[in-house]
Specification:
It contains eleven helices and eight strands. By secondary structure, the chain is an alpha/beta fold. The protein has two domains: about 200 residues, Rossmann fold; about 35 residues, no CATH class. The strands form two sheets. The chain has a six-stranded mixed beta sheet, sandwiched between helices. Strand 2 and strand 3 form a beta hairpin. Helix 4 runs parallel beside helix 6.
Length: about 240
């Protein structure tokens, strides 16, 4: 829903990224039904996909490979505008880029730099800016912090939360890290081997998981309290024994 972050967590190969890419037509939907902002994606035609993409922002896992290395940062951010809003003038695009660089807490002077001149955290901030350039109703963030150091992750996640509150977009946040999902999400879905095994309010999923796989995920999370950490290790061990 508008203003809500839905966190989708699961191990590698569970289907998280496939779902995110299918939601914007980067993967073909071959069965069942997938509706995004009212648009059925199964059998969707090219024109309808192009119209949908004007309403959706996508934040990729690794901006180093998703940016054109020959583009300046300004061109990287403005590219969706150039493609989807050709009626907007060059000066309006520059103003929008400057506005978004400020929103992601980067100097306006970065507009003239190239992706290789930025750190990983700075590139991910630029990726956030590009994902928001069209004022999307929905943002899909595909493991946007997995390639970053832990300290940089925290900064980017806090920035994502701040931007989400400011702009009020709905978001699908994809990650294999339950701690990250817990930090940014209002509701949480747990994916296991292509099946949604649990879904609900984040606080309910974290405190009272119902599915065995979710219980293992929660039990594996480290906590600063050594007594609580011991309990979690014992619970995780017992769950593994039961499974075997």
């Amino acid at each position: 829903r508008q203003g809500e972050v839905y966190g989708l967590v699961g191990e590698s190969g569970s289907g998280k990224t496939t779902i995110g890419r299918a939601m914007v037509g980067l993967e073909k939907t071959t069965g069942g039904s997938l509706k995004v902002l009212g648009q059925e994606m199964r059998g969707v035609k090219g024109k309808s996909v192009r119209e949908l993409r004007k309403r959706v922002g996508f934040i990729f896992q690794d901006p180093a490979t998703s940016f054109n290395p020959y583009f300046t940062i300004e061109q990287c951010i403005a590219e969706p505008l150039l493609i989807n809003r050709p009626e907007i003038s060059a000066s309006q695009r520059r103003d929008r880029v400057k506005e978004l660089l400020e929103a992601v807490e980067l100097p306006a002077a970065f507009a003239g730099r190239y992706p290789h001149e930025l750190s990983g955290g700075q590139r991910q901030r630029v990726s956030l800016a590009r994902g928001l350039v069209l004022n999307p109703e929905l943002v899909i963030a595909d493991e946007p912090t997995s390639a970053l150091d832990v300290s940089v992750q925290a900064v980017v996640l806090e920035l994502f939360q701040s931007l989400q509150k400011e702009f009020g977009f709905a978001a699908l946040f994809i990650s294999h890290d339950l701690a990250v999902i817990d930090m940014v999400s209002h509701t949480v879905g747990v994916l296991y081997h292509g099946e949604l095994v649990e879904s609900g309010r984040g606080v309910d999923v974290m405190r009272k998981p119902q599915d065995e796989y979710t219980k293992k995920l929660v039990a594996s999370l480290p906590v600063p309290d050594p007594v609580e950490q011991k309990k979690r290790r014992e619970l995780l061990a017992s769950l593994r024994n039961d499974a075997s």
